[in-house]
Amino acid sequence: MTSFDDWMAGTPIRAPIPTSTYSIVALLAISAGFFTAGSFIIQGNKTPLFQQLKTAVLASLLLGFGAIFASNAAGLYL
C-alpha cells in the first residue's frame, strides 16, 4: 500500500512513539539541551567557530524538540 492509497483511504497519521512516553522524551531532550547549552557557554573563545556552531545548533534542536514534546505531554498538541 502506498502513501497515496493511505491518503485516499483516510488512514490517520500516527505518532512514531507512544503518547505515554512524551513526558519522558521531553525530560530527556530538555535535560540534554541544557547540558549542551552549558557546554556551549563553557567553550568560550578557546574552540573553533565551527565547533561552537555545531554545539549551538545541537542545543537549540534539543531544546526545541523538548519544548514540543513537553507541550504535547501537557495536552497542547502543536
Note down, in words, how this protein is organized.
- The protein is mostly helical.
- The protein has helices at 3-9, 22-43, 49-73.
The number of distinct helices, counting runs of at least 4 residues, comes to 3
Biggest sheet layout:
none
Overall pLDDT = 90
- Give the CA-CA distance, first to last residue: 28 Å
Keywords:
78 residues, mainly alpha
Quick summary of this structure?
With 78 residues, the protein is an all-alpha fold. The chain has helices at residues 3-9, 22-43, 49-73.
Layout of helices and strands:
Elements (H helix, E strand, L loop, with lengths): L2 H7 L12 H22 L5 H25 L5
Helix pairs in contact: 2-3
